[in-house]
Amino acid sequence: MSRRLFCEISPTCYAISMKKEILRRHIKNLFSKDKIARTKSEKELPVIVKGHSSILLRKLSGVDMRLQENKATNIQLACEKINGIVIHPGETFSYWSSIGKPTKRKGYKEGLLIMSNGMSSGIGGGLCQMGNMIHWLVLNSPLEVTELHHHSDALFPDERRRVPFGTGTSVCYNSVDYRFKNNQDCDVQLLVWIENGELCGELRSEKAFPCRYRLIEENHHFRKEGEKYYRISQVYREVIDKKSGEKLAKELILDNHSQVMYDYALIPKEQIQNDN
């Protein structure tokens, strides 16, 4: 029998562990040399590097729709903090430095939370969808991701998924952040808003970049290992020269081996691959 972590002993121990991690982050920020982006502008930069949208309310197996509806409220509040933020050359965007602590007093509601041992709920739940959106925009640019935490498990079956599996990011105030650095010689800007039941986002810049990017998922299947099923795939990013159309590079950015946490009956049978 494996030994339990301190945070798994009880809710009180979990709360103590979270406070410790938040304190550790504050200390790390204090001594960090990162210059965090703080400027916001109502004027939109002229070049759209990448745009994307994702459905806000999804019917997830075993999840109360009230948590999904509350998530929409939480994301709207986060949009107000992030929309229009400008990241100057050399600056770093920090998810939690931009949003701040999500609290009930600020209007945040109880939404779905993804914990190390499964799903739960809490104030500000559902904000990982915003993190996923921003990360997808950045993946389609030359900007440098400096802090990223992947979800390790396959928590839900696909429902109108439009991006490769596993290309999201986990966020948890203030211990688990998402950060990227503007390593280019011009300003970039994030625009995020809600429209027609979808979270919409754009990454913009002062000038066009010479390359475009394409994310592709290969070798996708499910595999049974012992008594558990795992979702397997590799995600690559292709770098393509805009002028010539030549593929300049293909890099592996994610090697998925994620335990399926939902009802195995929902796994498409044609996607199950036997070891032999």
How would you state the average pLDDT, rounded? Answer: 88
Helices and strands: which structural class? alpha+beta
> Order of strands in the sheet with the most strands?
1-10-9-2
Number of helices: 4
C-alpha termini separation: 30 Å
Task: Report the strand count.
Answer: 13
Provide the domain count. Answer: 2
Question: How much beta, percentage-wise?
Answer: 25-35%
Low-confidence regions: none
Secondary structure topology:
Elements: H1 11-31, E1 47-55, H2 65-82, E2 85-87, E3 92-94, H3 95-99, E4 110-115, E5 118-123, H4 128-139, E6 144-147, E7 153-154, E8 179-181, E9 188-195, E10 198-205, E11 211-225, E12 228-241, E13 247-260
Parallel strand pairs: 7-13
Antiparallel strand pairs: 1-10, 2-9, 3-8, 4-5, 6-8, 9-10, 11-12, 12-13
Structural features, described:
The structure is a single chain. This protein is an alpha+beta fold and 276 residues long. It has two domains: 1-30, no CATH class; 32-209, no CATH class. 20% of the residues lie in helices and 34% in strands. It has four helices and 13 strands. The protein has helices spanning 11-31, 65-82, 95-99, 128-139; strands spanning 47-55, 85-87, 92-94, 110-115, 118-123, 144-147, 153-154, 179-181, 188-195, 198-205, 211-225, 228-241, 247-260. Strands 1-10-9-2 form a four-stranded antiparallel β-sheet. It has a four-stranded mixed β-sheet with strand order 7-13-12-11, with no helix packed on it. A three-stranded antiparallel β-sheet has the order 3-8-6. A hairpin with a 2-residue loop joins strand 9 and strand 10. It starts with 10 loop residues before the first helix and ends in a 16-residue tail after the last strand. The mean pLDDT is 88.
